[in-house]
Structure formats: structure tokens, C-alpha cells
């Protein structure tokens, strides 16, 4: 399923942000069309990085750039991003079809024939074609995750932000969903930013890695280079865990 624009290069340009007693300094770029894993210990600033890209946080200084365009103060709705979180953000009282359709039209107005077909196609793509009238509470965790994937597909945005989306799934299901993400990424060519605590998930999915500790970016490199960074104790600990 095509995205609405080519994936942008994203740059956090000397971004500083203070949240409570924690200070973050982020100066890094995310190559277009990659799956970039954001890793590091708890509290390192991984979710904060996603929130800055999405527009949920505004830096105290510095810029958030998409293909050189300054989007630092743009509202999240004005940014070319879709998001998938661990809890999937599904509405339990709305059926699967409607939850996916919200990606096209949050106001729930009547969909056009083409829009309805886009929802049907997205559900078929994630193997939920026969579940469109089910409610989320009746679905398994993996099925709910697939609904969230389908909603991201119909949005057709060139950037997908994922905050530990597979953390609550059992190991077998995590592998299945990781495979689905890889397949969808090959089809859409989108830029994916994936927060993960899982070294195997990082190795399996990512082509680029941003590693953080204490609110700072320690490594911003292709995955092959990251895996060789034995000079950084936090990286060694992450890879050994």
C-alpha cells in the first residue's frame, strides 16, 4: 500500500528538553526508508525521542526537521506520521472496521466507496478480513495489534512511530508480528522508528540504531556498526542482557 509522500529524512538538530528533573539532549538523524531501532536502558529518553518527532513534546531549544523543513512547532496532526503503541489505542466499543476507519476519518463521517475499500484491503492485508464486526475486547493481543497495523496502513503516512509495540505479546506472537512489520515495511518503504528493549528484535528488524543513555544519544549508526561498539559499557550490557 503506497504512502502519500516519499519518506523524509528526520533530524533532531541540537534538541534540548527538560522534563521534571530530567534533561535530554538529542542530536541525531533517522535515515529515510529505514527501520531505525531506538534502544537503551529505562529512562534513557527513548519515548521522549518519539514524542518529539510526533509533536507531543516541544523542545526548549533546537529544531525537529523533516527533509530540512522545520516542524518543531507543528501540531501532531500536521506531521506525516502514524503511531502504534503497546496498548494499540483501540476503542473497545467500536468494531474492528470502525477502529481502522478512524485512521482515514477521525470524525466518523460516512466513508466513500474508495475509503471503505481501503479499510477492507488493509484488514485483508493483516489477515483480519473476517473480523471486521468484532469488538476489540473479543480479540487476542496479536489480533488487536493487527488492527493497529491496519489503521496505520490506511493513514498512508511515510513515517511510522512504534513504542514497544510487541512488549506485551508472548515470544511466538512477537516473532509473527515482527515478520508482519518487515513485510509491510518492504511494501510501503516507509520510515519506521521502533523503540525496543529486545536485542533480538533489534537485530532482526533494524537497519539503523539510535542508542540512548541518561537523556543523550550515545550511538547513531547502522546496525552492523552498533553491534561492534564494545567500547560503550551500556551497549555491552544491552547486547548481553
Q: How would you summarize what this structure contains?
A:
The chain has 241 residues and is α/β, with parallel strands linked by helices.
Question: How would you describe what is shown here?
Answer:
Helix content is 33%, strand content 25%. The chain has 241 residues and is an alpha/beta fold. It folds into two domains: 164 residues, P-loop containing nucleotide triphosphate hydrolases (Rossmann fold); 66 residues, no CATH class. A hairpin with a 2-residue loop joins strand 4 and strand 5. Helix 4 packs parallel to helix 5. The model has no long low-confidence stretch (mean pLDDT 92).
Summarize the helix and strand pattern as letters: EEEHEEEHHHEHEHEEHH
Termini separation comes to 37 Å
Instruction: Work out the helix count.
Output: 8
Give the helix level as a range of percent: 25-40%
Low-confidence stretches: none
Give the CATH topology of the largest domain: Rossmann fold
Kindly estimate the percentage of residues that lie in beta strands according to DSSP: 15-25%
Radius of gyration from the alpha-carbon trace, in angstroms: 18 Å
Spatial strand arrangement across the major sheet: 6-7-8-3-9-10
Mean pLDDT across every amino acid position: 92
Features:
EC 3.6.3.-, ABC_transporter-like_CS, 4-stranded antiparallel β-sheet, membrane, Rossmann fold, hydrolase, alpha/beta, 6-stranded mixed β-sheet, 10 strands, single chain
What layout of secondary structure does this protein have?
Blueprint: E1 10-19, E2 22-30, E3 35-39, H1 46-54, E4 61-66, E5 69-70, E6 81-85, H2 96-101, H3 113-125, H4 141-155, E7 159-163, H5 171-188, E8 191-195, H6 199-205, E9 208-213, E10 216-222, H7 223-226, H8 233-240
Parallel strand pairs: 3-8, 3-9, 6-7, 7-8
Antiparallel strand pairs: 1-2, 1-4, 4-5, 9-10
